[in-house]
Amino acid sequence: MAVAALITWLLTAVGGFVMLGKWIAGGGHRPGGTSRLAPGLVFGHFALAAIGLVLWIVYLVAGGDVLAWTAFVVLLPVALLGFTMLARWIPSVRGSDGGTDASFPIPVVVGHGLLAATTLVLVLLTAAGVGVS
């Protein structure tokens, strides 16, 4: 289950990089811009997700329940920031205001969210020792 969490985490990161690239290419959040996503929100989500991924890789190499639980705890604010960005993104798509955030491909957003939720559950189950004999 721990390796499955790593795989879903990496796939989630690919979708995140696609959206981050589109956001930056669209100008990001600059004065007078049309992005609803603040840089602190975007880069905070990215940084915490990357820190959690590094912790998870270290857990896979070295073991230790504390590392698994720490990675899970780090993922919780990542999820909250992700939901916040989703809530800010939806009006830009529904209203078709032409904002830079509306250019995110819907399948990438949906896939990123589903993979992220799967990763969170797999990390929790692994940290809790479910499926370990």
Q: Which spans of ≥5 residues are poorly predicted at pLDDT below 50?
A: none
Oligomer: single chain
**Inertia-based shape:** elongated
Give the radius of gyration.
16 Å
Would you report the number of β strands? Answer: 0
Describe this structure in words.
There is one protein chain. The mean pLDDT is 91. The chain has four helices and no strands. It has helices at residues 2-25, 39-62, 65-94, 106-127. By secondary structure, the protein is mainly alpha-helical. The protein has one domain. Helix 1 packs antiparallel against helix 4, helix 2 (39-62) runs antiparallel to helix 3 and helix 3 (65-94) packs antiparallel against helix 4 (106-127).
Write a brief structural summary.
The protein has 133 residues and is mainly alpha-helical. Helices cover 75% and strands 0% of the residues.
Attribute tags:
single chain; 4 helices; mainly alpha; 133 residues
Task: Outline the secondary-structure elements.
Layout (H helix, E strand, L loop, with lengths): L1 H24 L13 H24 L2 H30 L11 H22 L6
Helix pairs in contact: 1-2, 1-4, 2-3, 3-4
